[in-house]
Amino acid sequence: MPQTAPNPGVLGVSWVRTESPEQHPEECLRPCPASPTVTPMHAWVDGSLLPDPHARAVRVTDHGLTVGDGVFETLKVVDGRPFALGPHLDRLERSATGLGLDAPDRDAVLAGVRAVLDAAHLPLGRLRITVTGGPAPMGSGRGDEGQTITVVADEMPPTAPSAAIVTVPWPRNERGATAGLKTTSYAENVIALAHAKSQGADEAVFANTVGDLCEGTGSNIFYVVDGELRTPTLASGCLAGVTRALVLQWCGGLEVDAPLGQVATRADEVFLVSTTRDVQPVLRWDGRTWAEPGPITRAAAATWAEREPEGYSL
Ligand SMILES: Cc1ncc(COP(=O)(O)O)c(C=O)c1O
Q1: Tens of pLDDT along 84-108?
Q2: Are β-strands 81-82 and 228-231 bridged in parallel, bridged antiparallel, or unpaired?
Q3: Domain 163-307: homologous superfamily in CATH
Q4: CATH code, 42-155
Q5: What residue's CA is closest to ligand 1, atom 1?
Q6: pLDDT reading at 16 higher than 70
Q7: CA of 150 to the centre of ligand 1 (A)
Q8: Are the beta carbons of 205 and 166 closer than 8 angstroms?
């Protein structure tokens, strides 16, 4: 059984050893903040904080594991406090009910959030909440044993100052049953991001089935044409990003759909927004490059930096 070794560490983080005590029993009990084998990650599953966050903890029949029947949220954490918790919990509920699952038990989710954040003390991190259909028979039919709820907190590197993006050949289906829902069926995003990375880029961008600009694998996209800030509408099939909504509220901008090819060639400025990227200028899109972020992008990033502190709670 893996064991934990609480240790305040250089950043005040409680480190947890991930090595097996069977292999190195004495080392597993020795705090070692500089070692790559320690992690500030903490995990909570269905009411309990796991002694080892890497332990196998979800049943092999879980419908999230077997068929991707689940929903999730990723939140940014600064100094142990989550950003935009309310909007993320609201979207978790919308995604679950959109999938035909019951609305997750908000008190249970909050208990998990508190447990991992209290344990982790993250200066900068991310929180992942996942709710699945729970144990079920093999196949697409659901079981009746109740949902699985997991909450994981881990550290996160700071956002890179800019991004390179690549258009991928696979469309987002804006008319599909899961359009606009944040489900655990993210394999399309995994393939698209791997494609972007193979081209030396940081994010992939999708058009939808009619060729309009949609979104990235884990981000929404804004651009400037004729001095006007624009972003695809939710009807494009993109996720209703929490960051997207706040950028629209704080910076303004027009929600409008346009062919991806037209945007990629005409836009004077482009930026990505997401929980993990905040407002991130795009300086390369396929074969096109920009020398530096434009004035509207810089203004949006400055507004974000100024107003973001309003969104932390707990
Ligand atoms: C497909 C997709 N689009 C957009 C976003 C951005 O949403 P948010 O700003 O809520 O992080 C995400 C978040 O991961 C996403 O998965």
Answers
A1: 999 999 999 999 999 999 999 999 9
A2: unpaired
A3: D-amino Acid Aminotransferase, subunit A, domain 2 (3.20.10.10)
A4: 3.30.470.10
A5: 218
A6: no
A7: 19
A8: yes
